[in-house]
Amino acid sequence: MDRELAGETVATAIFILGGLGAAILGTGIGTLGVAVAFGLAVMVAIVVAGHASGAHVNPAVSFAMVMAGKTPGRALPFYLLGQLLGALIGALGIWGIASGVDGWSARDNFFANGWDKLSPGGYGFGAAVVVEIVFSALWIAVVLSTEHRNVRPVTSVLAVGSVVALIHLVTIPVDNTGLNPFRSFATAIFSRGDALGQLWLFLLAPLVGAVIGTFVWLAVDDERLEGTLLFNPALARARDLADRAVDEVVDEIEELEK
Predict the structure, then answer these.
(1) What CATH class does 2-223 carry?
(2) What is d(CA 234, CA 140) in angstroms, rounded to the nearest whole number?
(3) How many CB atoms lie under 10 A from the CB of residue 96?
(4) Domains of the chain: which residue ranges?
(5) Crossing angle, helix 76-98 and helix 2-25, to 10 degrees?
(6) Out of 4, 111, 131, 243, which residue is the most buried by the measure of CB atoms under 10 Å away?
(7) What is the rounded radius of gyration, in angstroms, for the C-alpha atoms of the chain?
(8) CA 208, 9, 139 angle in degrees (round to 5)?
(9) How far apart are the first and last CA of the chain?
(10) What gap in Å lies between CA 235 and CA 251, rounded to an integer?
(11) How many CB atoms lie within 10 A of CB 230?
């Protein structure tokens, strides 16, 4: 498991240094520049460390990969530890650079996640909840879809980088885009204040989104529920009933068209 630990530490540090670095140190690049930077950062992380750990860079992704049966559960603690270390290393590096400017304070300038006063666009709690769950689910569904045997590695890298950039482009104005519990934790401990008080949402919501995203992936992929940790007899029966209902509707439509 040393490779998973090292891979996630390096990959997450790259993700934080690139994305958070652009958000805090970038001058005049705006929301578009920061969103592109996060997308590029995750692509670089995958290229550098993907062979070692898959470069999940996000505990919600690792959680979903375990649920989907694509990562062994025994490896999850190593993924989480590596991601936490990488996020802290990356954030510490950015803080070390930014704090060299006279009068700079991390309290209001560390791209922390939050709503109301912490929201760049003044969005409230409800908006942050929707963003963190829905867009986490989107991230997860795309990542799991790239694991399909017919998806080429280069396509996987481009797809994950693109969706991360797209998500940040849409959601930065709402809550500075969390979707990654350890990214949110690393920025909150430097920002302190309201960022720490609101941190609980950014730790919990992405995990809820991971569960939803895994079900979305199952709905559109040719993987079977039985091959995942989500399997239970009740869910399987519900799926089979839904499949039969759809088949009956299709048959009726075909009969009417004859």
Answers:
(1) mainly alpha
(2) 24
(3) 9
(4) 2-223, 225-258
(5) 30
(6) 131
(7) 20
(8) 30
(9) 60
(10) 24
(11) 15
Output the 3-class SS for 41-59.
HHHHHHHHHHHHHCCCCCH
d(CA 255, CA 24) in angstroms, rounded, equals 62
Task: Report CA torsion sign: 153, 158, 163, 164.
Answer: positive
Q: What is the pLDDT along the chain (258 residues), one digit of tens a residue?
A: 789 999 999 999 999 999 999 999 998 899 999 999 999 999 999 999 999 999 999 999 999 999 988 899 999 999 999 999 999 999 999 999 999 888 888 888 999 999 999 999 999 999 999 999 999 999 999 999 998 777 888 999 999 999 999 999 999 999 999 999 999 999 999 999 999 999 999 999 999 999 999 989 888 876 665 566 665 565 556 555 665 666 666 666 666 666
Amino acid letter, residue 238: A
pTM recorded for the entire structure: 0.88
Return the structure tokens found at 256. Answer: 């009417």
The total number of residues shown for the chain amounts to 258
Hey, what amino acid is at 36? Answer: V
**Residue 77 CA, distance from chain mean position:** 17
257 token code pair? 């068209």
Contact 139, 62 (CB under 8 A): no
Could you give the CA distance from residue 115 to residue 94 in angstroms, rounded to a whole number?
23
Q: What's phi and psi for 110, nearest 5 deg?
A: -115, 25
Q: In the block, which residue shows the tokens 């994950």?
A: 160
Q: Are 186 and 91 in contact (CB under 8 A)?
A: yes
- d(CA 63, CA 99) in angstroms, rounded, equals 34
Residue with tokens 């062994």: 72
